[in-house]
Amino acid sequence: QVQLVESGGGLVQAGGSLRLSCAASGRTFSTYAMGWFRQAPGKERAFVASITWSNNTYYADSVKGRFTISRDNYKNTMYLQMNNLKPEDTAVYYCASSGRRYVLGSWNDWGQGTQVTVSS
Q1: Which of 46, 48, 92, 95 could bridge 22 with an S-S bond, Cβ 3.0-4.6 Å?
Q2: Cβ distance 22 to 111 under 8 Å?
């Protein structure tokens, strides 16, 4: 089973930027799809972005053009660069790993989350 640890959250003003990191350990990183999700207070966890083993990327409409997902397979780390942040981006951000090699989805493993707060 993979262990996932997020970092990089914090408090930022609207229009600012943050970069989240998700460090993975415990299995071969490069063959698994990875994703970012977020959960705002009182709301369900929602998809933000995902990246496949071959670096295909997918985004929620709400973050397209502002967020960029990437991965470094040598460092076993996934990133989420968040630019032009808005107050509605405030949430706990979770990284997730697919539970099956070469499968997008089937999110089986989750990190503990990192708080992102955007002030207006």
Answers
A1: 95
A2: yes
Question: Which residues on adjacent β-strands are paired with residue 79?
Answer: 21, 70
| Structural tokens at position 93 | 């951000």
d(CA 82, CA 87): 13
Strands of the chain (E only): list them.
Answer: 3-7, 10-13, 18-25, 34-39, 46-51, 57-59, 67-72, 77-82, 91-98, 107-110, 114-119
CB atoms within 10 A of CB 59: 17
Kindly report the average pLDDT of the chain as a whole number.
Answer: 96
pLDDT digits (tens, 9 = 90+) for 5-59: 999 999 999 999 999 999 999 888 999 999 999 999 999 999 999 999 999 999 9
85: how many CB neighbours lie within 10 A of its CB? 22
